[in-house]
Design brief:
The protein contains 9 helices and 6 strands. The chain is of the alpha/beta class and 260 residues long. It has a single domain, classed as Uracil-DNA Glycosylase, subunit E, CATH 3.40.470.10. The strands form 2 sheets. A 4-stranded parallel β-sheet has the order 3-2-5-6, with helices on both faces. Strands 1-4 form a two-stranded antiparallel sheet.
Length: 260
């Protein structure tokens, strides 16, 4: 049995009228809409129902979930402040060592705890408190962020085709592949990103993301598939991300000319 996700009593056309997500921490003032056009996305992440005691958890629900959502919002703010996303980088689902703890895709608590030295990410201003979860590293998080910081001129917008945490029944400290119905439910969240940011180059991390993104080519200026860093794919993934940055001209200025 797979978990089902729903938005109680909400129609898509009503989402623009939704209330703002309350923020429990101070934030820099920004022009325009408080949520940068992403209020529907944040609301749906916050209110989606999942059967946490079965095999899927909504990491954005409850008191801890609100703090994880604030991490995600701050991350998106930082991407915008850095000049906007260089690409949409999409994985499969939230992992129990990464996004399920921090609220940010491809980001473990170990990564969140320290400043990366670029783009105002991460460290001070982000919530990496002990009660969110263990500060253990995650291969995907380490490989992706190390490569992005070293090679990309601007940060990509990180996401998952299924934004919640699917796990083995009764054991939330595991990951499982999302079911077809769960992947289908993730299309709504990708649509919200498309509405807010328009068509971006897309980088699909792994086969599941590749299938989803290539099925909607109109939504992206291009779709590039890279190896998932887990299960022995770390070196290949990093190399393909560097190739993408060099080949698209989105490489960090200090690294120009290194890759040919």
């Amino acid at each position: 049995m797979t978990a089902t996700l729903s938005l109680p009593g909400v129609e898509v056309e009503q989402l623009a009228l939704l209330p703002e997500i309350p923020r429990v921490l101070p934030e820099p003032e920004r022009p325009g809409d408080n949520d940068g056009g992403l209020r529907p996305l944040y609301y749906c992440l916050r209110t989606a129902l999942s059967y946490d005691d079965l095999n899927c958890a909504n990491q954005y629900a409850g008191p801890l979930g609100l703090r994880r959502l604030h991490n995600l919002m701050r991350y998106v703010d930082a991407v915008r402040a850095a000049g906007g996303p260089s690409a949409l980088l999409v994985g499969e689902a939230a992992g129990y060592r990464g996004c399920a703890v921090t609220g940010i895709p491809f980001t473990s608590r170990a990564v969140l705890q320290r400043a990366l030295g670029r783009w105002s990410l991460f460290g001070p201003g982000f919530d990496a408190s002990d009660d969110l979860g263990a500060p253990s590293g995650e291969t995907s998080a380490t490989v992706v962020w190390r490569t992005l910081v070293e090679w990309f001129d601007r940060p990509p917008l990180l996401w998952n085709v299924f934004p919640f945490h699917p796990h083995v029944a009764g054991d939330p400290q595991t990951n499982r592949a999302p079911a077809t119905s769960e992947i289908d439910s993730g299309q709504l969240f990708l649509f919200f990103l498309w509405e807010a940011f328009g068509s971006l180059p897309a980088i699909a991390v792994g086969k599941t993301a590749e299938r989803v993104l290539t099925a909607r080519p109109w939504a992206y200026t291009s779709v590039t598939a890279v190896r998932h860093p887990a299960h022995g794919g770390a070196r290949r993934c990093a190399h393909q991300l560097r190739e993408w940055a060099a080949g698209t001209g989105r490489i960090r200025p200090a690294e120009r000319g290194i890759l040919r």
